[in-house]
């Protein structure tokens, strides 16, 4: 239920933005034939119902930083890759407040964590699961469903009323009927459309009407308008979709008028205008049913007819190419940002990273059972306590312990012990725990997965990170780990890897590590002491080499721009996109010329 609402909101926002884009196209290309505008409106209604599309660097949505591509879907994501963090310090009240804040971005706020299997569930869902649930999604779904039912009932009532008024219509020829119960012509029906004419219509007026309505039928306008109306019913809460529907109907009629003039000749413009004027006389036509449409916006149509001129072939070709480009522009998803600021960015693009911390030593009575279990796991796995980790595994995983990196060895007394992992990098900060809750249709928790991020240092010291992706299941009265994947992020060759690694934690070279000195302080100290001049004097001697070493990127191309304040902006370009990092020399006043990434602002 909640997932459906989030998807609907994503679709509605994408369609709304497309409406504005099409309106700009209409304004800029006013001299074009209305048939091209009519074609452009299809992009709005496709966006409103289709969550999937292809990616392109020429997508219109590249101009909206809050719209991002996740897989093949376009989603609303004001804070990319955000998820709800459930730790021992997060009580039910905090979880509820986070859920409210995450609701607006829940469609894409939680990125799909590799190995979790619940990427489609958002941070809002997880926060709600921790808080015990709330009724807001059910209320919103009920309001939406009530609006849909009422509009469908109104449409059905209008259609039945039309059918009753046309029941006595006389068939004059194939697909054409006449009746004195209507005052203007229209098409009624979906699979077998019929043209209904007012009784007594004759001469040139009858010819104009029949040409006009037959064009509607030939182009399947009756079906397209019906589908568009049903789409608007799904998005009944969105006024921009109603506006798009009204303008679609107007452009549909005007384009049909233009086709008639192409057939009868421009010299008939005045006569056709007089014919349209006669449609403005008030009558009993029961407009409102999506299955029938007649003549509307008569004044605007008359103005359009009087301005009509048949376009030359070159102009028609150019217009068609423009419209096709507009459709591609509106229907494609953005293929990625040209550059993403990963360190700083107060005056530039918003940082893609969200910092989170957890105090493993804290005892919080409000922490849930699964939170305590995950804290215990994070502490054991972070410090490579193989025996404790082994005990928390399901029997199936215990049987595969060696495959998962838990090995048996003999200690100094010859007794068998369990060991795991490596000695460096070592855990140097509290792990960050992110929980994803899978819910069923009744919002019951049916699965729990977790992503645990371990910030680590080496003796150089450089920051690294590794992650555990866990699946939890009940084992009687307790939890056990039934799925476990470990990934190390020690080198990056794409933005996707950086986003995955630093989704919940960002390396900070200026935060004190041991209470007094930061990693940057130690790097400068080693450089000044001449600990390893070939290493510090070479690797950190240029902004690019220092960037590659401290953030562990490789395989890309770079561009460095020196700034007036002595800093350097390095754009490091991968195959998929690029990152942009500000590099500084923090130890310059002490005599150290090494470069390091800045955690401050980027002025661009």
Polypeptide structure, described:
This protein is α+β, with helices and mostly antiparallel strands and 604 residues long. Among the domains are: 2-132 and 329-337, no CATH class; 139-307, no CATH class; 508-604, no CATH class. The protein is built from 18 helices and 21 strands. A five-stranded mixed beta sheet has the order 4-5-7-6-8, covered by helices on one side. Strands 10, 18, 19, 20 and 21 form a five-stranded mixed beta sheet that branches. Strands 13, 14, 15, 16 and 17 form a five-stranded antiparallel beta sheet that branches. The radius of gyration is 32 Å and the shape is elongated. The relative contact order is 0.11. The model is unreliable at 79-133, 281-289, 343-362 and 600-604 (pLDDT under 50).
> If you average the pLDDT, what whole number results?
76
Trace the largest sheet across and list its strands. Answer: 4-5-7-6-8
The poorly predicted ranges are 79-133, 281-289, 343-362, 600-604
Please report which band the strand proportion falls in: under 5%, 5-15%, 15-25%, 25-35%, 35-45% or over 45%: 15-25%
Total DSSP helices? 18
User: Structural class of the secondary structure composition?
Assistant: alpha+beta
Largest sheet features: 5 strands, mixed
Count of beta strands: 21
- Report the end-to-end length measured between terminal Cα atoms: 43 Å
How much is the radius of gyration in Å? 32 Å
**Gross morphology:** elongated
**DSSP helix fraction:** 40-55%
């Amino acid at each position: 239920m909640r997932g459906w609402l989030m998807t609907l909101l994503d679709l509605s926002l994408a369609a709304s933005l497309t409406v504005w884009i099409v309106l700009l196209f209409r304004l800029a290309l006013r001299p074009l034939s209305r048939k091209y505008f009519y074609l452009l409106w299809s992009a709005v209604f496709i966006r409103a119902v289709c969550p999937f599309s292809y990616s392109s660097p020429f997508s219109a949505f590249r101009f909206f930083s809050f719209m991002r591509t996740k897989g093949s879907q376009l989603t609303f994501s004001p804070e990319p890759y955000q998820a709800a963090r459930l730790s021992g310090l997060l009580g039910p009240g905090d979880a509820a407040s986070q859920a409210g804040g995450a609701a607006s971005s829940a469609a894409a706020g939680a990125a799909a964590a590799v190995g979790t299997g619940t990427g489609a569930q958002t941070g809002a869902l997880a926060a709600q699961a921790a808080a015990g649930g709330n009724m807001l999604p059910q209320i919103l779904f009920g309001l939406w469903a009530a609006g849909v039912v009422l509009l469908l009932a109104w449409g059905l009532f209008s259609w039945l009323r039309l059918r009753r008024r046309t029941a006595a219509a006389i068939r004059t020829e194939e697909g054409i009927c006449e009746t004195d119960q209507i005052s203007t012509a229209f098409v009624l029906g979906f699979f077998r459309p019929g043209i209904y004419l007012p009784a007594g219509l004759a001469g040139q007026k009858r010819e104009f009407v029949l040409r006009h309505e037959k064009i509607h039928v030939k182009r399947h306008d009756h079906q397209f308008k019906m589908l568009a109306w049903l789409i608007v019913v799904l998005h009944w809460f969105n006024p921009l979709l109603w506006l798009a529907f009204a303008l679609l109907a107007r452009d549909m009629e005007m384009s049909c008028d233009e086709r008639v003039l192409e057939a009868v000749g421009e010299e008939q413009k005045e006569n056709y205008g007089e014919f349209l004027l006669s449609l403005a006389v008030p009558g009993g036509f029961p407009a409102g049913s999506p299955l029938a449409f007649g003549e509307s916006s008569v004044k605007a149509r008359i103005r359009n007819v009087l301005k009509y001129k048949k376009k030359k072939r070159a102009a028609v070709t150019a217009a068609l190419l423009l419209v096709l480009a507009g459709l591609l522009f509106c229907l494609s998803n953005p293929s990625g940002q040209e550059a993403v600021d990963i360190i700083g960015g107060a005056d530039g693009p918003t940082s893609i990273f969200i910092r989170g911390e957890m105090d493993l030593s804290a005892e919080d009575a409000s922490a849930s059972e699964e939170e305590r279990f995950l804290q215990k796991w994070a502490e054991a796995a972070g410090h490579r306590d193989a025996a404790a980790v082994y005990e928390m595994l399901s029997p199936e995983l215990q049987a595969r312990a060696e495959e998962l990196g838990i090995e048996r060895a003999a200690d100094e007394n010859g007794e068998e012990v369990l060991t795991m992992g490596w000695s460096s990098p070592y855990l140097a900060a509290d792990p960050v725990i992110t929980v994803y809750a899978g819910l069923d249709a009744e919002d019951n928790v049916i699965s729990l997965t977790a992503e645990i991020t371990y910030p680590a240092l080496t003796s150089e010291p450089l920051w690294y990170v590794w992650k555990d992706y866990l699946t939890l299941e009940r084992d009687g009265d307790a939890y056990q780990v039934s799925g476990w994947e470990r990934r190390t992020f020690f080198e990056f060759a794409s933005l996707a890897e950086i986003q995955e690694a630093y989704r919940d934690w960002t390396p900070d070279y200026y935060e004190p590590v041991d209470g007094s000195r930061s990693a940057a302080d130690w790097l400068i100290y080693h450089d000044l002491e001449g600990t390893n001049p070939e290493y510090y004097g070479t690797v950190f001697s240029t902004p690019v080499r220092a960037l590659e070493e401290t953030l562990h990127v490789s395989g890309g191309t770079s561009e460095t721009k020196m700034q007036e304040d002595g800093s350097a902006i390095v754009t490091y370009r991968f195959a998929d996109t690029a990152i942009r990092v500000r590099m500084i020399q923090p130890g310059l006043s002490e005599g150290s010329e090494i470069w390091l990434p800045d955690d401050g602002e980027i002025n661009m």
